Amino acid sequence: VALEVDHEVLVWEQPCPELAGLIEQGHLDDHFVRDVCTEYLEPLLSREIEVVVLGCTHFPFVQPLLEELTSGRIQFIDPAFETSELVRRRLEGKDLFNPQKTAGT
Q1: Which residues cross the membrane (predicted)?
Q2: What is the pLDDT of residues 29-43, one digit of tens each?
Q3: Please, what are the domains in the chain?
Q4: Entry pTM
């Protein structure tokens, strides 16, 4: 998507295979998750990456830690809101969206 907007943008992928499991185990801000996050952030910091789109639903749970470890040098984006808005628009477009605010049964 980024390349569709700007053909000169550089996109970098950073695998984080251990992070979701640590988050599921409740490691949100201890030495285990800090060590793993530091390891995964190093290549991004060395390449002077400006923006990271969090690519897993688990990662926003450690977003404050990621921001702390990068001292604000990287902007982290949680795509959940944009994704939910896209789903809402598609449901509305197919006349399937239920605008009620009360829980269903």
Answers
A1: none
A2: 999 999 999 999 999
A3: 15-93 (3.40.50.1860)
A4: 0.77
